[in-house]
Amino acid sequence: MTTTPFGLSTVLGYPRIGPDRELKRALESYWAGRIDATALHRIGAELRAAVWRDLRHIGVDAIPSNTFSYYDHMLDAAVAVDAVPDRFRRLGLDELDTYFAMARGTAGEPALELTKWFGTNYHYLVPEIGPDTVFVARPGKPVAEFAESRALGMTTRPVLVGPATFLLLAKAASGAPEGFRPFDRLDDLVTVYAELLAELADAGVAWVQLDEPAFTTDRTGAEIDALRGAYARLGAVRQRPRLFVASYFGELGDALPALLATPVEAVGIDLVAGPGDVNRLAGCGPIPGRTIVAGIVDGHNIWRTDLRAAAARAAVLTGVADDVVVSTSCSLLHVPVDLDAEPDLDPDLRARLAFARQKAGEVAQLGRALRDGVAVLPEPPGAAPAAWRDERVRSRLAELPVRRREAYPQRARAQQDRLGLPPLPTTTIGSFPQTDQLRRARAELRAGTLDADGYAERMRTEIADVVALQERLGLDVLVHGEPERNDMVQYFGEQLAGFAATASGWVQSYGSRCVRPPIIYGDVSRPAPMTVGWAGYAQSLTTRPVKGMLTGPVTILAWSFVRTDQPLADTANQVALALRDETVDLEAAGIQIIQVDEPALRELLPLRRAGQRAYLDWAVTAFRIATGGVADGTQIHTHLCYSEFGEVLPAIDALDADVTSIEASRSKMEILADLRAAGYGRGVGPGVYDIHSPRVPAQHEITEALRLAVAAVPADRLWVNPDCGLKTRGYPEVERALAGLVAAAAEVRAELR
Ligand SMILES: CN1c2c(nc(N)[nH]c2=O)NC[C@@H]1CNc1ccc(C(=O)N[C@@H](CCC(=O)N[C@@H](CCC(=O)N[C@@H](CCC(=O)O)C(=O)O)C(=O)O)C(=O)O)cc1
Ligand SMILES: N[C@@H](CCS)C(=O)O
Ligand SMILES: [Zn+2]
């Protein structure tokens, strides 16, 4: 083993999309057949080289590699241990296309499942592991990227998902026996990781980073013992690089002493999300010969670090460990690439921001300051400008009458008297396909080649088409189709005071897909109605009810960068108050049903149980503030998707929405029994088909799903809708799927008599 020192500063990972989303364009060109694999690999190599050079130039001295990915780092980890399910091997594709088949599926083979990476808005592909999965070391990618960096004169530190986290995040392959857990295979996997380490050492790697963030969530004693056992074995590998086990998104807790009981040379702790690990570490006594990688620059938010305060926090650790390295709290994957691309941001705000490049600069400065003294560190920005505070919003919230709406039975009667809907009313979740023409119109508006009136006219034409289509299909409750929305959060962020929008602050969501999260920097209010014009226009075209469509306060927070100078709950309530104003205006404009989407309700749930209750309380309060201003005869819907909602069912009930539409088709309606068991007794719209796939469901499949639903929920409370919005689908498939949905509803309605 080498004795190369770690270095003064590092980042745990870096955005891989490129400063101008070059990776997105390259991937989509490759998938469309416009470029070949050689061109894609060339662009990948250029992006990696640019990141390494940039980090070196900025002064980060321990530079990671293998943080680049053509799709996802969990998928890369699966490939590195050859955990490729047979159904993909059988396709007979080459290595790259097998990789993309796992990521995206093929005409006949569904992709691996995509799910949330801890509490972030990044999604990883879920490896499928069975008792018979044969693990084989395939170190090609990390070794090749290490060699690339070496050719550029840098000795980088390859990063891999650690074996314990890999298995804890994997799912049992179909056909695995009842009770089998991928984690049962830890011993086998560690054997292969030992081989990977030996191969990396052979290639000249001095340090390797193994990420074990799963241990910042609640884990059993047995799992922590298994972690200790795994790293004891990896530590005993004779020919290996030095081991850096990184954790992030919270405290390691009992896993920290467990790791320190193994021969790993460095442990990373997240001082931003898990500051308690500092005391725990101090309690472990002196740890000679170990490196502590202190994550003191927030990798999950965009605020500039108070470098003096951060240095003081890191300095505490210098009394405990021989070697303290300054780092980001997690990978910088979760923040945009470069603040320098945002010259138009308000200077007062800009002065308080740091994106990935700037955060890399912060760790470099802090690393040097830890060695040379803190005198060189700049002062933090002063207090926020007074104009960012809005006393009116604060007093309105303080005085908000906690007027409870009537209980559900009375509300339901009032609503049914108004709406007169048939049993099993049919509807959609809000968005219709976002066509190239719509996106182009927005691009033209931004470029100034289309004026605001011209843009509005194009949106009205689209809305009229969408309304006419829904009438033709025979849907009962219509939507305007959300053509004007670039994104369900960004759209609101661009209109609310207290929010800033970036010009190119893209963050990877999954694969080639990115989002541009707005920044909540001040008190929030709504200068003008945000959706009323579009919804009101749609309603003017039809006698059927048009459902107004808003994004809820929790989801707006989850998918924005949020101020940290006040509790999240306070910011959520301010957003909720602005949404409440919007609901009241929608109601006044004749909208009788308003849907407030909360797909991220589960996402913000704290990773450890200790903080979950308080979170759910404020999340529910914010939703109720947002929806409590309308009359009892106005029907409030909510919509939930993208997550397993098992842990938050009581909170879903507490939202007190009149109707909850929820993703259900993939779990065969099982959510309905769970909701009932949690006491939920109001309207429910279980998704009857999966919108994530272009496959058009056969009518009988929807009918069967509906029959399952009718068996679980009284028919007078049941709604019929897809699993989620239709924005990612194309019109031909949407028309056929919705025609099937309406026909299936009619069929099951007839069976009720
Ligand atoms: C539902 N999901 C969402 C999450 N977070 C959000 N903030 N929003 C969400 O909807 N998290 C969980 C999931 C994640 N799922 C997705 C799904 C799809 C995307 C996606 O497709 N993103 C788009 C970008 C969307 C957008 O902002 N569109 C803009 C156009 C931006 C653009 O690229 N314009 C081009 C020019 C276009 C042209 O000329 O035609 C340009 O500027 O170069 C818009 O509609 O105006 C993506 O392409 O990645 C994300 C998350
Ligand atoms: N109303 C939104 C919800 C997505 S979760 C849509 O239909 O796209
Ligand atoms: Zn949805």
TrEMBL record:
State which gene encodes it. Answer: metE_1
Q: Which organism is it from?
A: Dactylosporangium siamense
Family assignment from sequence similarity: Belongs to the vitamin-B12 independent methionine synthase family.
Q: Which PANTHER family match?
A: 5-METHYLTETRAHYDROPTEROYLTRIGLUTAMATE--HOMOCYSTEINE METHYLTRANSFERASE
Which residues does the annotation say bind Zn(2+)? Answer: H639, C641, E663, C724
Q: What is the lineage of its organism?
A: Bacteria, Bacillati, Actinomycetota, Actinomycetes, Micromonosporales
Name used for this protein in its record: 5-methyltetrahydropteroyltriglutamate--homocysteine methyltransferase
User: Which residues are in the Cobalamin-independent methionine synthase MetE N-terminal domain?
Assistant: 9-314
Locate the residues binding L-homocysteine: I429, G430, S431, E482, D597
Which residues make up the binding site for Zn(2+) 1?
H639, C641, E663, C724
